[in-house]
Design a protein that fits this description.
Layout (H helix, E strand, L loop, with lengths): L2 H20 L32 E2 L3 E2 L3 H7 L9 E6 L5 E8 L3 H25 L3 E11 L5 E10 L4 E11 L2 E10 L7 H13 L3
Length: about 210
């Protein structure tokens, strides 16, 4: 399947996310400032790709466009940082990290992010009748204060077919989200390898 169809799907979801977030504003005093700098995943810690090495981008302030639609509203009141990853083909990934004031706030944020991922399929379908979306839970992981793994599949009326794995994990005051995506369905998702990546991501927070 050519990359063009996947690019169209990404553009539809990104536009919807940017539009939704642009309609909301946040006072500067409401923003939580990060008080420390958690470590991020390296390229070698991503699920192995069968025919291409991973390349890691720079750690950057803000939120990547690919996460805006599913997670943007839950993260509006926070400063955050992310690191993008890509292969030479259609597979890409992102890690986003937020440090908040207390462990209780981090627990609440992680819960909100899990709920946002679970409801994202419904919101995608409501935003675009040309897209069919399906959610799948892959359970929790016993790492630090815990992590949950989610799957999200989208298929458009014109044939674009994409699978995402997302995880939300927490260590103390820090919450991290790992987001992996490529063309394909649930059967193409490297769930076991992604769980190992999530465990490494949470263990690297401090």
């Amino acid at each position: 399947m050519p990359k063009r169809t996947r690019a169209v799907t990404a553009a539809v979801l990104t536009l919807a996310g940017v539009t939704a977030c642009a309609a909301l504003t946040v006072p500067a005093q409401a923003t939580e400032k990060a008080s420390s700098t958690p470590r991020f995943l390296s390229a070698s810690q991503l699920p192995p790709h069968p025919s291409s090495d991973w390349t890691a981008g720079k750690v950057t302030d803000g939120m990547p466009d690919e996460m805006q639609f599913c997670l943007g509203k839950a993260l509006l009141a926070y400063d955050m940082r992310y690191r993008p990853f890509h292969t030479d083909l259609d597979t890409s990934a992102r890690q986003l990290t937020v440090v908040v004031g207390t462990a209780a706030k981090a627990k609440a944020l992680a819960g909100s992010l899990d709920k946002a991922v679970k409801s994202c399929a419904q919101r995608i379908e409501a935003a675009d009748p040309e897209v069919e979306a399906t959610y799948k839970s892959y359970g929790s992981l016993p790492v630090e204060e815990g992590a949950r793994v989610h799957g999200l599949h989208t298929e458009t009326s014109w044939g674009a077919n994409d699978i995402r794995l997302l995880s939300v994990g927490r260590d103390g005051r820090t919450v991290t989200v790992v987001d992996w995506s490529q063309m394909g369905g649930f059967s193409d998702a490297p769930v076991s390898a992604f769980k190992k990546t999530t465990t490494k991501a949470v263990n690297k927070l401090y």
